[in-house]
Automatic annotation (TrEMBL):
One of its GO terms (molecular function) is hydrolase activity. The keyword Hydrolase applies. InterPro entries: AB_hydrolase_1 (IPR000073), AB_hydrolase_fold (IPR029058). It comes from Streptomyces nigra. Keywords: Hydrolase. This is Alpha/beta hydrolase. Residues 3-219 form the AB hydrolase-1 domain. Pfam families: Abhydrolase_6.
Length: 228
């Protein structure tokens, strides 16, 4: 089974290198994706462009696919579940939750000159970045790719109720499974409140476990694949 790895904002597909190597060692087939606007210099890329890239990877797979979305890309993984519910073995959501229909994809920070640059570390003070040392932070900042406005402000459109049949694993880095369950039960995550099969996995990391805990993250993803 292919495991599609979709990074969040500002991330090139190469951020999954450690996870991909560990998954290969466990006998799985990782497919890290570099999305339009996340490494090709195309500031005109849109959310639809990114979704089409993920869907193309799903369609190219010989069998069922596990799609993994990180942070904002949890919505991209869920959009994939909406468009290809019969092709997915499951959706893994790392450090984030899917946006509702009609909501902006990731309109979180200031857009300048058509892109949303990395805003620096102040918004991520605390558990998000506590496990990133200065060297890791410098490397992240240097590699961060500004997000095209058409991606950040793209509107999420969900149309197929069968997405709620797709098994979901929520990987909890800077928050706990108990907190995630509380948010869902309180109605803060309507899409997952309607999902029929939601499991949770804890990981001792900040917001970017593919950087700080790649082997453990790979183990969690491999277990999710094996469960399917």
């Amino acid at each position: 089974m292919d495991i599609l790895l979709v990074g969040g904002l500002w991330l090139h597909g190469s951020v999954w290198g450690g996870v991909a190597s560990a998954l290969e060692g466990l006998g799985h087939r990782p497919v890290p994706l570099t999305l339009p606007g996340q490494g090709d210099g195309d500031a005109s890329a849109t959310l639809d462009d990114q979704l089409e890239t993920v869907l193309a990877a799903v369609d190219a797979a010989p069998g069922p696919v596990l799609v993994v979305g990180h942070s904002a890309a949890c919505s991209l993984a869920w959009l994939t579940a909406d468009r290809r519910p019969d092709k997915l073995a499951g959706a893994v959501l790392i450090g984030g939750f899917p946006a509702e229909d009609g909501r902006p994809y990731a309109d979180f920070f200031e857009v300048r000159d058509g892109v949303m640059p990395f805003p620096g570390w102040e918004p991520f003070d605390g558990p998000d970045a506590a496990d990133l040392d200065e060297q890791a932070r410098s490397a992240f900042t240097a590699a961060a790719i500004p997000v095209p406005e058409g991606v950040a402000r793209g509107v999420v459109r969900l149309t197929d109720e069968r997405r709620h049949d797709v098994p979901v694993l929520v990987v909890c880095p800077e928050f706990t499974p108990a907190e995630a369950r509380e948010w869902i039960a309180a109605g803060d995550v309507p899409e997952l409140a309607r999902a029929k099969n939601v499991e949770f996995a804890d990981i001792d990391s900040g917001h970017w476990p593919m950087i700080t805990q790649p082997v453990e993250l790979a183990r969690i993803l491999a277990a999710a694949t094996d469960a399917d």
